[in-house]
């Protein structure tokens, strides 16, 4: 059995009891304990904490745009991490620094705009959700959503982990059907038992393929049909 007692300030104390022959202390547990301890010495109310965290995002944006790589890295805890959209993990300040240097070389002159959409305080940590828009020198933009986990240290709030997520726009029906563009036009099939004429065209909004067909025998129309974009049903009418 291991009992850990933490005293915060003059009056508040926390006690943790762990039972077992072996104990594995993870980075998260260490950060949690460190954050709990720091709250006693550097406590803030929720409004002040949220303001400080959003100010941290502003500092990060400024440092990135001015190429102040060391300033960017200093905003992370020593063993912080960054996980990109593909799930690649960059652990520690050295790897994060190498990533930022590589990005700057590849996209020289690009500017970032970081928007903090929400900040949630959960015990001794904070979770920030937001959007990062990067604009290159040609004016092209890319948008990434992120979730950042912040912890309170003796130096103030710092980033423990950032996870990026691609912000993909929903694909329209027209985009899904674009590979069938070759089918647009008039098609005719003739045989001994009759003739079938089919015409395909795009709907006015470009999101649906509309097909009309006419079946005839010896010059007489015996069946016709069309596909409606709203009901997405094949409607036929027997003629003759």
Overview of the structural elements:
With 240 residues, the protein is an alpha+beta fold. The protein has 5 helices and 13 strands. The chain has helices spanning 27-42, 46-65, 69-74, 92-106, 173-177; strands at residues 2-8, 12-18, 76-83, 89-91, 111-122, 125-135, 141-153, 156-166, 185-191, 194-202, 209-217, 220-227, 234-238. The protein has a 6-stranded mixed sheet. It has a 5-stranded antiparallel sheet with strand order 9-10-11-12-13, with no helix packed on it. The model is unreliable at 1-43 and 228-240 (pLDDT under 50).
| Major sheet characteristics | 6 strands, mixed
The percent range for strand residues is: over 45%
Task: Summarize model confidence as the mean pLDDT.
Answer: 78
Distance between the termini: 91 Å
Read across the widest sheet, the strand sequence of neighbours is 4-3-8-7-6-5
Classification by helices and strands: alpha+beta
SSE order: EEHHHEEHEEEEHEEEEE
Count of extended strands:
13
Which terms would index this structure?
240 residues; alpha+beta; six-stranded mixed beta sheet; five-stranded antiparallel beta sheet; 13 strands; disordered N terminus; disordered C terminus
